[in-house]
Amino acid sequence: MRTEKDGVLGIDIGTQGTKALVVDSEGNIQGVGTSSYSFEIPRPGWSEQDPRIWWQAVISSLKILREKGISLSNIRAVGVSGQMHSSVLLGEDGEVVRSAILWNDVRTTEECAEIEELLGEKHVYRITKNAVLPGFTAPKLRWIQKNEPDRYRAIRWVMLPKDYIVFRLTGERSTDVSDASGTALFDVAGRKWSEALMEGLGFSREWFPAVYESKIVVGRVTAEAARATGLPEGLPVVAGAGDNAAAALGNGVFHEGKGVISVGTSGTVFVPLSRVPDFDDREERLKTVHLFCHCVPNTWHAMGVTLSAGMSLSWFCQQFGWRDFENMLSGVQEIPPGSDGLLFLPYINGERTPHNDPYARGVFLGISYRHSAKHFVRAVMEGVAFSLRDCLELIEKVTSSSPKELYLTGGAVKSRLWSQTFSDVLKRRLIGYEDREGPALGAAFLAGLGIGLWNSPDDLPHQVGSIPVITETNAGSASVYDQLYRVYRHLYPSLKETYQILHAAQQGS
């Protein structure tokens, strides 16, 4: 490093890119390297990615760090975070069996129902604390068993994206409690695999690696990985965490009373819990709130997910001819809150919270001659905010509590307009840090905790070098959004049957 200080490395495997950063013991970010890629959509509602792309992106991101003058020889440990649920299947030789079916793929609706019918919906929920949802790992395995039997028979290991990178770095097969929580095969309260669920579904227990708390050192960088990446051989690598848990840790959110609104490809609302709510029955909408292990021991979290948050804005930018985000957003602040009655449902590839509907699709409602292209851009931003308000209200109902302090992280932090929109729609004061690097920073913190660089999460240097961007709610805009939110909430129930008819028509065409 240019400062010659020792540091720790955090790597985040995202859906549209990989980020690697180095942070020193005082919390100063020494450098960041990123590498972008895309995912494939073989059929409507499907989403896949070749895991080997992630490994090459790690190599590229580390090369960028070196080109920036960062000495990888001063790194003391590595942590990895990544997109959750996406299924990485390896054969006996350690090679990839097929492209990963991603977290936002919704092809497994039938398999979710089959699992709950076979094992008993209440039995599954009692163990996993979650409904079986299309993005989760178990229904994907069942889909492969039914539709790709040759590939199913070739499976030797089942991993999650960040676990694949840990495997490529160390040769060790592992996972952590936060990521394993989203497989529909995990005892969330007990923080361990459920062998009963695996056996009930006919999955081999040997497929699934040992599960660890997120800061535990699970292996060391091999000679082969050192040659490929430039990292020192023997460097400790911790188990790591799912992206949202890592992002929460990076923002200092691991105690009750705080929460994170994260806007990346997807959008999430994340609220830490000191215990798992003790109940078996919830009304159907509430079952779309996830209850997972946090990456901090003896801590859990509730989370709501909208599948196409930042992706909705990316889609609009790409498909309607904008040169870039800056050009697209220029002048949008002149459009009044509420976009003059134009509403957007961000269900471009189905939805998870609160509807769990793979057939839901995006909708613009209220189009009139007065609406310009900028109205549509603002409506997209507002629609995503409405969706995350849906998530927050459900979480508050499930946990019977409300976070007193909310952080905003991800791409939305860099847009004052979008930050203000979230604050006004949610009616909450929001705290953001433009220099926070989300999951990659949390992964680096886990690496530091794993080697004793910091003794506990409370010792992490969250505030160093960071100037908070505080967004206060505008009462007038909030009032407008309150009225439109009531309309927004009415739209999905009105369209649900139409979505089913549209899906059937597409299947028949």
TrEMBL record:
Looking at the UniProt record, the site noted as Important for activity sits at 12
Active site residues per record: 243 (proton acceptor)
Q: Does the keyword ATP-binding apply?
A: yes
The segment(s) forming the Carbohydrate kinase FGGY N-terminal domain are 8-250
Which reaction(s) does the protein catalyse, per the Swiss-Prot or TrEMBL entry?
A: D-xylulose + ATP = D-xylulose 5-phosphate + ADP + H(+)
Enzyme class of the recorded protein, top EC level: transferase
InterPro entries tied to this protein: ATPase_NBD, Carb_kinase_FGGY, Carb_kinase_FGGY_CS, FGGY_C, FGGY_Carb_Kinase, FGGY_N, Xylulokinase
Keyword Membrane assigned: no
The chain positions of domain Carbohydrate kinase FGGY C-terminal read: 260-449
Entry EC no(s): 2.7.1.17
User: Which chain positions lie within coiled-coil regions?
Assistant: none
Q: Name one GO molecular function term.
A: D-xylulokinase activity
Residues binding substrate: 84-85
Keywords linked to the UniProt accession? ATP-binding, Carbohydrate metabolism, Kinase, Nucleotide-binding, Transferase, Xylose metabolism
Free-text function comment from the UniProt entry: Catalyzes the phosphorylation of D-xylulose to D-xylulose 5-phosphate.
Which PANTHER family does the UniProt record give? SUGAR KINASE (PTHR43095), XYLULOSE KINASE (PTHR43095:SF5)
Family, per entry: Belongs to the FGGY kinase family.
Recorded hits in HAMAP family, A to Z, give: XylB
* Protein's UniProt name: Xylulose kinase
Question: What is the native source organism of this protein?
Answer: Polycladomyces zharkentensis
